[in-house]
Design goal:
- The protein is of the alpha+beta class.
- It contains 3 helices and 3 strands; from the N terminus they run ββαααβ.
- Strands 2-1-3 form a 3-stranded antiparallel sheet.
- A hairpin with a 4-residue loop joins β1 and β2.
- α2 packs antiparallel against α3.
- The termini are far apart.
- The mean pLDDT is about 95.
Length: about 80
């Protein structure tokens, strides 16, 4: 199994049309953070998610830590889909 794949995907709504996006990996979380609404990038959970996800890509944090940080950031701005 790819060490960067999440055990369970995370669904968020991103973009001008609030398109549902399934995030299945650390790389996917990073790409979603890049696409994050510009006006919502100032929150503390967003900044933490960028740090943790980047560290996971570098191999110094776990995929589970990246997933948790990504979920917290999505919850912070209300884009997490249950």
């Amino acid at each position: 199994m790819d060490r960067m794949l999440f055990d369970h995907s995370v669904n968020v709504r991103i973009g001008p049309e609030s398109t549902r996006r399934e995030v299945t990996s650390v790389k996917g979380a990073y790409e979603a953070l890049v696409d994050w609404p510009h006006t919502k990038r100032a929150g503390p959970f967003y900044r933490e998610a960028v740090e943790v996800v980047s560290a996971a890509l570098a191999g110094t944090r776990t995929r589970e830590a990246a997933r948790r940080a990504f979920i917290a950031a999505a919850e912070e701005i209300g884009i997490l889909v249950s």
